[in-house]
């Protein structure tokens, strides 16, 4: 195999044609580069005759969204493929199927999920996914429990931790989520219309303390193998199916970071809805989003607790009271990380299309302010929180305040 270089569509097609037992030798293959993420090339290759298709994802030696001025390790492709292998073993129905990995080209070959839609797009279009909470709570419970000291041999876990050391992508998160939004960083990108609120956040030392406590957890707590970037752009859905993709940020970190990430992105869409919907339609969709967010935690809690009761490998972890303590801490971490993920998507380098594509400037500003208000409050309240219902109260209180122009 040739040494590393970024593939052209023609080279990607030639590589796909050589996949063993995949395309017929004389297949008429088409290829399009379809990557809409921040980091990598994604090639969609299809046999024009049979319709059979495949996805080739290639890491670039830099962050695509910034360019060659931001060098980035190709090892992230190995991390992604190995994380997909773990997730595929634990949740085969909820993970994109890994077909092959080519280290020389930092190339991951996987099934084509074009019959699904990226969840972020579906939510922007106002669609509903009635099984999503059930599916993603299962993915979270199983991937987090069985890669932790609770569900796997602690010596094997230490070996696995070494496989998933991911310093460069963790630094992106440490900077973009737990640092830049709280200072006048050159990485930041926000609308001047909300500068007053952003500058209040830069001065809010009580908020910074809570962010630092969460940053400490991200830096030091290797509870389980995380997806590391589980936003609604990392999930493919239909009304009956959920498939997780893109775990290149995987590493051993605090469980609440994954649970909080998906809840945060539902709440970002919740804030965005003020720019998309009105009246009863708005109220009804807000209710759907909030119900989904709380149900993710509730179902995760039930499933994780059941795994704890039935699959625990650590005798001392069965000590009465420990599970309750663990789950309360996990909820608080989830809420705090969710708040951090919301704030960074408004102030930081990477935004979300849910809010950024709102056509009306004043409604977009309102959505941005609502997202910041919710995010800040979740961060500030996380260590005193005892129930997911309190998140509901926080979200609805902030909604009312923004609606009343406070
Ligand atoms: N398995 C797949 N099937 C179909 N399309 C895919 C698949 N994986 C990625 N894509 C497309 O490529 C886009 C970027 O993929 P992603 O893995 O998120 O890249 P990045 O790591 O650059 O964010 C997705 O939003 C989706 O449109
Ligand atoms: C410079 S990476 C910025 C941002 O992009 C990643 O998301 P994705 O790879 O899905 O586009 C991740 O959320 C990073 O924080």
From TrEMBL:
It catalyses: 5-(methylsulfanyl)-D-ribose + ATP = 5-(methylsulfanyl)-alpha-D-ribose 1-phosphate + ADP + H(+). Gene3D superfamilies: 3.90.1200.10, Phosphorylase Kinase, domain 1. One of its GO terms (biological process) is L-methionine salvage from methylthioadenosine. Residues 31-264 form the Aminoglycoside phosphotransferase domain. Pfam families: APH (PF01636). It is an enzyme of class 2 (transferase). InterPro entries: Aminoglycoside_PTrfase (IPR002575), Kinase-like_dom_sf (IPR011009), Methylthioribose_kinase (IPR009212). Pathway: Amino-acid biosynthesis; L-methionine biosynthesis via salvage pathway; S-methyl-5-thio-alpha-D-ribose 1-phosphate from S-methyl-5'-thioadenosine (hydrolase route): step 2/2. Substrate binds at residues 229, 344. Its EC number is 2.7.1.100. SUPFAM superfamilies: Protein kinase-like (PK-like) (SSF56112). GO terms for molecular function: ATP binding; S-methyl-5-thioribose kinase activity. ATP binds at residues 40, 57, 111-113, 246-248. NCBIfam families: MTRK. Belongs to the methylthioribose kinase family. Homodimer. HAMAP family: Salvage_MtnK. Catalyzes the phosphorylation of methylthioribose into methylthioribose-1-phosphate. This is Methylthioribose kinase. It comes from Xylanibacillus composti.
